[in-house]
Amino acid sequence: MGDINIDFLKPNSIPKQWVDIMESYNLTQLIKVPTRFTNSSKTCIDHIYVTNPEHVRATKVATIRISDHFPVCYSRSHNSATRTHKHSLIKYRSYKNFNQSAFLEDLTLVPWNVRESFDDPNDALDCWEKLFLEVVEKYAPLKERRVKKPKQPEWLTEEMLKAMNARDKFAQLNDDRNRKLWRNRANNLVRNGKTTYYKQLIKINIGNSKKLWNIIRDLAPEESKTTPTTLKDGDVILSNPQDICFYSDKTSDAGK
């Protein structure tokens, strides 16, 4: 992907050597509209090359005038098969016993002037980082945890994880009474935590339709997260991904 300086609006002028390279590597160029405009010309010289065009949902030339070139972008289909039977080890800082007032007070007691004894800026930075992390470690220690997914949702808290662990522990002990007790507690914590998190997220992005749409997609059940293959609006029926993308942008702009 990038500025290739070969105009694909004029297929007959594409160098044979370039065509041979594309064929050798099984490359398809996806951008078919002008990407650079001048007072006297328009050319398609910013390209996206792929080996599997069927994996690309849509392409777009964003009409943002940063320079005389418009940026090109694309979205692709991706099926990431999550391996739930494997666990990963992650590191995180625990804020369970974090005391902000004491933390800030301890920072004022750190001998920051020690870093001035170093002539090399990199050594001075290393010294500062070491002093800072010593205080951080005291109030928010670095811990390790085995998780099924390395990237955890932002609404997930340590309190939720503890409730889930207790639920699983009592399930292994066949203690049904305590299992149900901690299951209900974990469910309530997750429900309330997600509600609070997404309410705040929606409030923050209330004027950003793109981010709001991403939030709504994130809230949708996993099985319903499918990409529509056709778009119908009155008498208009579109099935080409590029046409759908272009039409959606136009109708979105019209509603602003």
Automatic annotation (TrEMBL):
Q: Which source organism does the UniProt entry give?
A: Paramuricea clavata
- What's the protein called, per UniProt? Uncharacterized protein
Q: Which SUPFAM superfamilies match?
A: DNase I-like
Which InterPro entries does this one have?
Endo/exonu/phosph_ase_sf (IPR036691)
